[in-house]
Amino acid sequence: xxxxxxxxLGNYDVKRLLIKLSVPAILGMAVNAxxxxxxxxxxxxxxxxxxxxxxxxxxxxxxxxxAFTLMIGVGGGSVFSRxxxxxxxxxxxxxxxxxxxxxxxxxxLITIFGLLFLDELLVLFGATSSNVNYAHDYLGIILIGVIPxxxxxVLNNLVRAEGKAKLAMISMMLGAGLNIILDPIFIFDFGxxxxxxxxxxxxxxxxxxxFTFIFSMAVxxxxxxKINLKHWLDIHFGTVKEIFLIxxxxxxxxxxxxxxxxxxxxxxxxYAPGDPAIYISMYGVINRVFFFIFxxxxxxxxxxxxxxxxxxxxxxxxxxxxxxxxATQIVVVYFTLGFVFVQFLAVAIFRLFSETNNAFFIGYGxxxxxxISIGYILVGFHIILSAFxxxxxxxxxxxxxSILRQLILFIPIVFILTSIYxxxxxxxxxxxxxxxAGLISLAILGYELKALDKIIFKQKTHQ
Length: 463
Description:
Layout (H helix, E strand, L loop, with lengths): L2 H9 L2 H34 L4 H35 L2 H28 L1 H7 L7 H11 L3 H16 L3 H23 L8 H23 L18 H35 L4 H38 L3 H36 L6 H14 L3 H17 L2 H27 L2 H38 L2
Helix pairs in contact: 2-8, 2-11, 2-12, 3-4, 3-6, 3-7, 3-10, 3-11, 4-7, 4-10, 5-6, 6-9, 7-8, 7-9, 8-9, 10-11, 10-15, 11-12, 11-13, 11-14, 12-13, 12-14, 13-16, 14-15, 14-16, 15-16
């Protein structure tokens, strides 16, 4: 075992360790979020507001890809970090190779299925006559790059689990940074002038590059991952089960995001007073900026998970609690600042995405975003609690928390409120679901911290 990484996760000052592991993840996430933001901005400037809908319509399938990938990456990372804490090299090797083989097979199936049924998927996702051609052009290319994109994300999670957060950060920044550079070259007329097709091509090329980098690092002699390139169908099914159980909540959460996007687009098509395409584009902007705000916050969680997993495996519960409390403080403050950001800059954001300075697009879109952002103040508690249960390997609890905000609360509320308030009911639902989920998560997190205090007390009395 790499004694340096073991010493880092098990004995380094917890607050400094969380910052040390989180900052690279935050930077990587920030650059990735910036890429999504800039990607949408370039599409808007190159092809107009309606073209933003192509990226919005592609969002559900993108989230399904992420759902499978993060299920494997988060589940595998949790198993790996706890095995790392125990010094169990056999489990460490099993989980790495099983996770990569699982991901390759699932990614290939998604690519084949997506390309065969692309037209049917676009109808399901709520594409309109105004944006369907844009969406077809974009998704048709994105699907080709699913395998390298997903393998890169799995490797990033595994690399973080061995305590090499900077390496994962470099991989993410490489892919996102290259994408930002290639976007204008492929999209605008001074380059290849390919519009939304260019945006998709830039994304695929960038993801292949990022995967090549992280894979080359993962197979090096300095890595704990021990990737075996032979016997690709040799999958350890006991490990598969554990990955599914632990990563399942992440899969469900992201799949629900895809389902919610489809529901939202269908509700927009039903309740929009005019062409629904413009409202779908508004939601597309909100969604991109939402991830611009949220992804760096999730970087803190990514720094937290290996600390919790390792110290749980090593039975260092006091360090575990300290990490949870400090991470919660950071995340709650961060998302509160995100709320303030939206309240003050929503109009400027929508003006930036409107090539024609469309007053309705800017005015209605910014008002909707301000309503949605109210729930940001409390959503951090929900994010921390879900990560806490996943890192400990508690799949049932993690599952229940993961579906609370998006499934148990959002879906019934959105149908009730849209029947009363029409299109505005969608925006009210986001805020209400986040607030309720945040309050429930705060209460449960408080209970879990008290339970940890009892374990810590017993541990100290027996020393």
